[in-house]
Amino acid sequence: IGATFSVACKFAYAGGDAITKVFEYTVGDACDGSGLTNNELKNIIYPNPATEYVNIVTENNANICIYDLLGKIIYTGTVKAGTNSIYVGNYANGSYIIKLGSENFLLEKK
Predict the structure, then answer these.
(1) Tens digit of each residue's pLDDT (9 = 90 or more) over 45-78
(2) Which residue in 52, 49, 25, 45 sits closest to 100, CA to CA?
(3) What's the rounded Cα separation, in Å, for the pair 8 and 27?
(4) What span, in angstroms and rounded, lies between the C-alpha atoms of 110 and 105?
C-alpha cells in the first residue's frame, strides 16, 4: 500500500515514428483496483492529424513548445487551464513534436 510503480507505453505511428510515455501510479488501500491513482497531469491534444488548428486541453497552465523533427523551435507560448487553440495552418505538412509541460506528443500536420 502506498507503493508507486511506472508503466511505459510505446505508441508507434506509420512511417516509423513513435512516442514512449511513462505513467506513474500509486497503490491505495483498496484491493479491487479502485485505490490506483494516476499521478500524471492529464493533457489532450486533438485533432491529430491537424489541418488548421490544434486544440490543447490541460488541467493546469503550462508552457508549450512545438518543434519540427530536426529540433527547430516552431512555436513557444503558454496555455491556460482548459481548452486552447493554436493555429498550425501555415506549418508545412509533416510531423511535429509538441512539448507540453513535461509531456511530449507527436502531431501530424496535413
Answers:
(1) 888 888 999 988 888 898 999 998 888 999 999 9
(2) 45
(3) 17
(4) 16
**Sequence letter at residue 84:** N
Question: Which residues are paired to 105 by β-bridges?
Answer: 98
Binning the chain into helix, strand and coil, the percentages to the nearest 5 are 0, 60, 40
pLDDT in tens, 73-109: 999 999 999 999 999 999 999 989 888 887 777 777 7
Q: Chain-centre distance of CA 45, in angstroms?
A: 6
Residues 81, 69: Cα–Cα separation, whole Å: 27
The secondary structure of residue 20, as a DSSP letter, is: E
pTM above 0.85, yes or no: no
Report CA dihedral (7, 69, 12, 57) to the nearest 10 degrees: 60
Question: Would you say 74 and 94 are in contact if contact means Cβ atoms under 8 Å apart?
Answer: no
